[in-house]
Amino acid sequence: MWTRLKSLMLKDVIQFARDKTILGVVFWLYTMEVLICGYAMTFEVKDLPIAVIDHDQTVISRNLIDKFTLSEAFEVSGYPKNQEQAESWMRSGKVKYVMVIPNNFEQDLRRGESPGLQVLLDGTNSNAASLAKDYTAAIVRNFEMEFIDNPVALGSAVRPVVQIWYNRAQTLESFVVLSMIVAAIMMVGTIHSAASITREKEVGTVDQLMVTPTRVWEIFLAKTIPTLAVGILAFFPSLFIIWWFGVPIKGSMLLFLFLMAIFLVSAIAIGVLIASITKTLQQTLLLCFFGLFPILFLSGTMTPTESMPSFLQPITYLSPVKYFMDICMGVFLKGVGMAELWPAALNMAIIGAVLYIIAAWRFKHNLSS
Amino acid sequence: MKLHRLYAVMRKETREIIRDRVTLSTAFLFPIVMLFMFGYAISLEVEDVSFGVLDQDQTPSSANLIDEFTESAYFKLVRSYDSEVQIHKSMEVNEVKLVLVIPPGFNALTGRKENPEVQLLIDGTYSATALVALNYGMTIVSKFKQEQDNSLIDVQTRIWYNPSLRSIIYVVSGLYAVIIAAFPPLLTTLAIVREKESGSIQQIYASPLTVPEFLLGKLLPYGFISSLQLVSIVALGYYWFGVPFNGSLGYLLIAGGIYVFCNVGIGLLISTITNSQLLAVLLALVVTMMPSILFSGFVFPIYAMAEPVQAYTHLFPGRFFVDVSRGIILKGAGPAEMIRPLSFMLAYTLAVFFAAVVIFKKKVA
Questions:
Q1: Which residues of B touch A21 (CB under 8 A)?
Q2: Three-state secondary structure along A231-250?
Q3: Which of A59, A321, B179, B182 has its CA 20 to 30 A from that of B173?
Q4: Distance (Å, rounded) from C-alpha A39 to C-alpha A46?
Q5: What is the pTM of this model?
């Protein structure tokens, strides 16, 4: 029995190494994809293009504009001639923000007549608009303080002292790199197992396997165990990307690898399930991509599940990816161990076991029919 | 180019599409499914952020501040702590995202003319929403106990196009570009590569058909189907997701038509350089779908990317259509404002089609 299992597994590994397409996809997902996403997926409000109409044209008004230019959040990308031109720029998307400094701005300010400062915001990107509004308030406040040289006169207010945990630089890179690695693990586990089964179905070698003395469950194990090994091994090139972006590794790598193996079981089971309904490699790949994208997005790899509408949230608890995301962020960014992670790990293991059993049953059914 | 031969190719292609019920139904179903999935799943809404409180003051004043938080739509109180040690554990297991720490003596200070401090701790893992939540929290704290508005400058902010700042409008209006980049190229590529794999392309080679006739005959029916896809998802965005429509439908149809044919053209180009359906599918995903998600500005703003990446985004038509479709749909922009991205997309489409014709010709000879 072991010899049969061993030779079947060996055959699968050799086949995997020979299939350049799948090999290429696996490598791409674990490295290039993560790299590209790390650079492209950003939500920061940085260099937001703004237009300024300065009706005042004084030293003070230019000082205020300088404050905006110097901030990282904004970038003055033009001075429109009039309101119409500014609005046209807004519509074409050239600028996302228009600031209008009124006539007599300096004069009113000196007389204490609180001059109005008009800000027009493109609200299309709701988060950016909301942050831009807050940044504007902060810059204006800063400007006021410098202008009157006497902050106390501005009166008392409760002052918030802020601490940002786990991601002090406030960039999304760490999150994106880790979530894309989670996505790669999921996709590779699914695609590899699904592809290795459909390929045999397509070529017809499955019938040859069926007439040999091998049992169905042996074939099943031989199809799934090498995928597990490939999935774990393929993770190591990603470590280079993790290092490249300076993502901290605060927790135990060994624990992560162990939990990753549990996660892969779910991914592999989903792959087997996909293979049980498709006939060709092409159908399999299409279904993998278009089936996995929603699963991944619904599991908080793109935006956190907490932000999703409440009718979707219960569904997210069924996804093993959601738990693995928590584990991944926990191990890398927060440095937590099994004491904190066991509920997520347990949920993931249960979902994985259920999926694996269903997959085995479908597999048997599919082959014998 | 002879019109009757073009017509014959189109008729053959249309018949094939209509007979293939599976492909036809997926062609119309998938875009809609994708719009629903992504429209709801990609959410940047900041509301009901779970937060915890460590109230070391325990006075009516501190209770008031906590009330200000719980009464706002943004925060949901899930936990009160007794000591600082509990906070760490609670953040680590994702119980709360934000913690408000009110130090002892807070009440005594708010009465007098001093600036009392409170601490806001936030889990910054997902910075996009964390920062917004943090700013809401800071605003609540700063407004608390501020006797009068003492600022010198009166900042009057007006928010246009999405005044209620709903993230779903942002996401759905950007998804149009992504969905059209995902499916039409795939369908078109497969339509040609299938003929290559089955060998029926040899009959085309042997016929008097010229290359432009053949490619155009493929392009037009698929372009038409894809335009219907675009119309169906824009309608769904308007009626179901409540994305406002402030512009002219005519402009959108013209702009959308160009973008659709651009993507179908890319599909044609891919099919001329590949011979297997598998490779064609993978190429279509890497060349059209992924860039349309990452480099179009559909949710990830291009202006925030690094300079070289910004330049790179120009390689894909998605970024132009995102500007155009948001411009027309949300902002009511006219042709004058849209002329640059539109002419670029048009040039792109012609170039892609021309390249496909040139590459395809070599193979016939």
A1: 278-279, 282
A2: HHHHHHHHHHHHHHCCCCCC
A3: A321
A4: 14
A5: 0.82
